[in-house]
Amino acid sequence: MMVCHDGNIFLDKIEKKFLANPDNGLFISLPVMLGLKSIQDEYVECLKELFNLKWTVGCAGGKHHMAYYFVGILNSKSKKSKLLYLDPHYVQEAIQSKYLNGDENEYDTKMQKAVKSYHCSKIQLIPIQNICSSVAIGFYLRDYDQFLKFKLKMLSMQKMQDSFLSIFEHKPEYLKKSYRS
Fold first, then answer.
1. Which residues pair with 139 in a beta bridge?
2. pLDDT digits (tens, 9 = 90+) for 133-179
3. CB 72 within 8 A of CB 51
4. Distance separating alpha carbons of residues 30 and 54, to the nearest angstrom
5. How far is the C-alpha of 108 from the C-alpha of 96, rounded, in Å?
6. Nearest 5°: CA angle at 70, between 68 and 76?
7. Do the Cβ atoms of 11 and 169 come closer than 8 Å?
């Protein structure tokens, strides 16, 4: 796992992780502040674009004292885009191991009932402009090859008008003294 502090992505640090363990995947968390109270309009397009990337696994955030986990986007090309979210406060117990042993018919019935309870009956949506401005975007890169593709995409997205991404090949000297390593 790697946390990119202050919204800065240092590509050499990610690459070092993959070169040390080329077959291991890597989860990257990118915490960013996209406004004071709400997301500034100019950052919405970049956030929508990030949700369309195959490496994006979601975004931790919320609205007005409520935490959510945003898992996808609906109508990303529209001005009225909405985020699909899960409420992490809705908790239920794991499937009991006793369901996994014993009679196969009993297993099927109990397992079907348990699995059915883990699905939402209603899709939860929120307009992207209504979420709080402090979010942590998650990415999962399976291997070094995916990292190389991710790197190219991030560098191109950084050039978008109104991008909030800060991508560096290496940590600049002026940051080495004042920021965490």
1. 28, 56
2. 999 999 999 999 999 999 999 999 999 989 999 999 998 887 776 55
3. yes
4. 16
5. 13
6. 140
7. yes
